[in-house]
């Protein structure tokens, strides 16, 4: 059978992400969890005693906590099967020319240097356990912005890191937050000074390359009073027969009158367990936006959260999930209203095909004293066939009489009338379905910078392969 032009294009697009880089790792810990592995990681990094103590406390917490029995099925996961640290290079490069050729080739295939030149204020790339390249354009350095990997931040800004780490996502928040706190490596540290508006995004790109790796980036973002910053995270991994583990923790601090946006376009391979904790605390008149796109990984548990602790603080979470065959996304959002006249908007859109399952799990909590709080939750699911599944688990806890809370959820199939109309205009059934799906995702896509919107549409097209017929 001949391969058509569109098939060749789709194969080429998939190969863009599904390739393996041969790397001579400078350091590789043994498989499995243990205090010896933790101490080895800390020693290789040359960390201060307080960070080692933080890790040891987290390991003890992790070992004592039970596995979650809700959400996705984690029964097949064995923590002893993963490598918890692999160092691809000894030193982080500050110019693209300094990056080792094999690693540079990897990120060039993914389009990172091109993106940096065209529309990014700064970029950080992480290969497996360590950042391999970090760069901030000089015009933004002059404004006092800090954008470095977390390992550099621990050495260079220890007081700031120590003041903030583990304060929004505590060590004992959940089992995987404890795991990250014990074995974290890499991630980003961002500080935007008062009144500074970073007009174009910062980006970090996380790549799992090694088989059976656990990647545990830790990110802290501080948007000081009156500042504005947009941080974009991209994630990919090649397909292996053995499982990989991604357990990130992101802590964001939005100060008075500041605005922060965190955008994720996640395209892990289906052998990845994606178990992430993301949380922001928002002060008076601040705004936090999570824009969360999930199109890869075998299982995902992720619930971006906003803690609205200052008067008139606002939080918005806009997320999409595309669950294909064998995938289960248990994702959603949390909004915690602590202060008067705070507001939150949670919009979730999910698509399921094959035997894919997408679950929305949301929490809206209004504490006593948060009078005038407003929250709106909209959860829409689109099923592409009879085998797919969607679930909704909303939880609303209101302890204040003067609050306005809205929740609505819909589950629908692709309309036969819409398909008939589009096909009557000369489109194939697959083309018509793709147009309907793109329209369903439009509220999410329009929030992305143009280059990322194009990339997301490509990923959706790949996910739609074989959805009909």
Classify the secondary structure makeup into a structural class. Answer: alpha/beta
Please count the helical segments: 12
How can the largest sheet be summarized?
12 strands, mixed
Distance N terminus to C terminus? 17 Å
Identify the quaternary structure here. Answer: single chain
Number of strands: 24
Describe what you observe in this structure.
The protein is globular. It has 2 domains: 24-426, no CATH class; 427-469, no CATH class. The model is unreliable at 1-15 (pLDDT under 50). Strands 5, 6, 8, 9, 11, 12, 14, 16, 17, 19, 21 and 23 form a 12-stranded mixed sheet that branches. A 10-stranded mixed sheet has the order 4-3-7-10-13-15-18-20-22-24. It is of the alpha/beta class. It is 26% helix and 35% strand. The longest helix is centred in the last third of the chain and has 17 residues, at 429-445. Helix 2 runs antiparallel to helix 3 (49-64). It has 12 helices and 24 strands.
Identify the notable features of this structure and list them briefly.
single chain; 469 residues; alpha/beta; 2 domains; 12-stranded mixed sheet; 10-stranded mixed sheet; 12 helices; 24 strands; disordered N terminus
Concise structural overview:
It is globular and about 65 Å long. The protein has 469 residues and is of the alpha/beta class. The protein contains twelve helices and 24 strands.
């Amino acid at each position: 059978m001949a391969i058509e032009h569109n098939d060749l294009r789709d194969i080429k697009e998939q190969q863009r992400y599904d390739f393996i880089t041969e790397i001579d790792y400078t350091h590789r810990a043994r498989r499995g969890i243990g205090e010896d592995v933790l101490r080895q990681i800390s020693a290789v990094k040359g960390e201060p005693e307080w960070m080692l103590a933080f890790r040891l406390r987290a390991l003890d917490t992790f070992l004592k906590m039970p596995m979650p029995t809700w959400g996705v099925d984690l029964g097949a996961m064995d923590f002893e099967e993963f490598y918890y640290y692999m160092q691809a290079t000894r030193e982080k490069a500050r110019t693209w020319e300094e990056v080792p050729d094999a690693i540079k080739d990897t990120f060039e295939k993914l389009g990172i240097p091109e993106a940096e030149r065209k529309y990014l204020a700064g970029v950080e790339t992480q290969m497996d356990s360590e950042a391999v390249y970090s760069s901030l354009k000089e015009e933004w350095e002059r404004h006092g912005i800090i954008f470095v990997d977390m390992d550099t931040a621990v050495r260079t800004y220890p007081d700031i890191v120590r003041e903030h780490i583990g304060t929004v996502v505590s060590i004992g928040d959940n089992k995987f937050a404890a795991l990250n706190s014990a074995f974290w490596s890499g991630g980003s540290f961002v500080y935007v000074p008062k009144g500074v508006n970073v007009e174009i995004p910062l980006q970090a790109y996380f790549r799992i390359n090694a088989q059976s790796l656990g990647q545990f980036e830790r990110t802290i973002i501080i948007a000081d009073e009156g500042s504005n910053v947009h941080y974009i995270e991209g994630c990919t991994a090649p397909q292996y027969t053995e499982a990989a583990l991604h357990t990130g923790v992101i802590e964001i601090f939005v100060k008075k009158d500041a605005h922060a946006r965190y955008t994720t376009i996640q395209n892990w391979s289906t052998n990845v367990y994606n178990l992430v904790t993301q949380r922001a605390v928002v002060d008076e008149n601040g705004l936090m936006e999570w824009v969360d796109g999930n199109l890869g990984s075998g299982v995902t548990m992720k619930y971006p959260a906003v803690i609205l602790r200052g008067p008139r603080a606002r939080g918005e979470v806009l997320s999409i999930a595309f669950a294909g065959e064998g995938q289960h996304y248990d994702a959603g959002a949390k909004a915690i209203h602590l202060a008067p006249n705070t507001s939150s908007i949670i919009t979730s859109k999910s698509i399921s095909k094959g035997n894919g399952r997408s679950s929305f799990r949301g929490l809206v909590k209004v504490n006593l004293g948060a009078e005038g709080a407003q929250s709106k939750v909209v959860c829409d699911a689109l099923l592409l066939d009879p085998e797919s599944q969607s679930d909704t688990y909303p939880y609303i806890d209101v302890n204040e009489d003067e609050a306005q809370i809205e929740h609505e959820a819909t589950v629908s199939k692709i309309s036969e009338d819409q398909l008939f109309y589009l096909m009557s205009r000369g489109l194939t059934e697959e083309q018509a379905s793709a147009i309907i799906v793109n329209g369903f995702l439009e509220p999410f896509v329009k929030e992305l910078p143009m280059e990322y919107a194009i990339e997301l549409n490509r990923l959706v097209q790949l996910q739609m392969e074989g959805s009909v017929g």
